[in-house]
User: Which sequence fits this backbone?
């Protein structure tokens, strides 16, 4: 009887032992807590440095805030009405569109060509990969300052052209040449990053597909169009989104090379925002311009993401 009584009471003693985890502290809850702790730093950073500034940007856009005058008053939709009537805004948006289109087209096409060439098993490809990628690691301002000296009227570019009997223009003082110069400098700075992404995608394409297509009589162009492009289409989507968003956020290159000139030919939206907010100290209107920039980036990103259903044919 005593032995039976002890066996019956054993479960109760097991539950009341000191140091044993309570029933609610299950493995599933421990896993959830560990997951929350892992994402907590990213979540806190997202709230403090993305969501909070974004909310303040919308809040400031409804106010008339002049730091020098010390005024901060609610103005309703006055800044947005001014935005719709701003005579300089169409030219700014035109310069922004020209810069973005030129940068995206030249960057992506050049990066893809370089990746295809460097994907060949030839001697010296590692050296050329390093050369093309090295500008990515260079400080942006230092890179732009060097190119500003090279592109001056008596700079290195025109000096090289003069040895060939060609008289080069003052690249940074002509409306057309200034925009071309800014685009080329930015492309040379960042084309190596997209090149590496394309190169990684190309190396992931199964060799068996090329071998089978060659046996079927497909030439190089057909293999590129029917095999290479579909297989690397997710990478093309990624690089296009990154490049488009980056082209709309350009500032340092414009500030160092042209300061928005000549005239307003290279005054893109971000630089116009900077002028209104930090040079003219009109932070309310600057915030409204920031909202416009956010809307443009959001719309373009959503459009590209929706278009992936039509041309991204190899997506996990």
Assistant:
């Amino acid at each position: 009887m005593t032995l039976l009584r002890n066996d019956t009471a054993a479960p109760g003693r097991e539950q009341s032992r000191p140091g044993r985890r309570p029933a609610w502290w299950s493995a599933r809850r421990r896993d959830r807590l560990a997951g929350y702790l892992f994402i907590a730093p990213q979540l806190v950073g997202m709230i403090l440095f993305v969501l909070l500034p974004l909310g303040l940007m919308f809040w400031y856009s409804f106010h008339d805030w002049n730091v020098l005058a010390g005024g901060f008053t609610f103005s309703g939709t006055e800044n947005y009405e001014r935005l719709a009537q701003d005579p300089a805004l169409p030219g700014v948006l035109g310069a922004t569109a020209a810069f973005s289109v030129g940068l995206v087209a030249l960057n992506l096409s050049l990066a893809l060509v370089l990746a295809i060439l460097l994907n060949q098993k030839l001697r010296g490809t590692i050296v050329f990969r390093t050369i093309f990628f090295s500008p990515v690691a260079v400080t942006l301002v230092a890179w732009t300052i060097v190119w500003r000296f090279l592109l001056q009227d008596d700079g290195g570019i025109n000096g090289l052209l003069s040895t060939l009997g060609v008289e080069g223009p003052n690249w940074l003082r002509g409306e057309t040449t200034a925009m071309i110069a800014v685009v080329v400098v930015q492309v040379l700075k960042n084309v190596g990053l997209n090149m590496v992404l394309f190169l990684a995608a190309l190396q992931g394409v199964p060799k068996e597909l090329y071998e089978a297509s060659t046996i079927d009589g497909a030439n190089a162009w057909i293999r590129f169009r029917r095999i290479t492009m579909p297989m690397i289409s997710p990478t093309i989507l990624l690089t296009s989104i990154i490049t488009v968003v980056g082209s709309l956020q350009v500032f340092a290159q414009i500030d160092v090379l042209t300061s928005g000139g000549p005239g307003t030919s290279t005054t893109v939206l971000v630089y116009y925002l900077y002028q209104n907010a930090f040079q003219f100290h009109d932070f309310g209107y600057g915030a409204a311009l920031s909202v416009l920039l956010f809307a443009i980036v959001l719309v373009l990103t959503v459009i590209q993401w929706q278009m992936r259903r039509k041309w991204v044919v190899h997506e996990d």
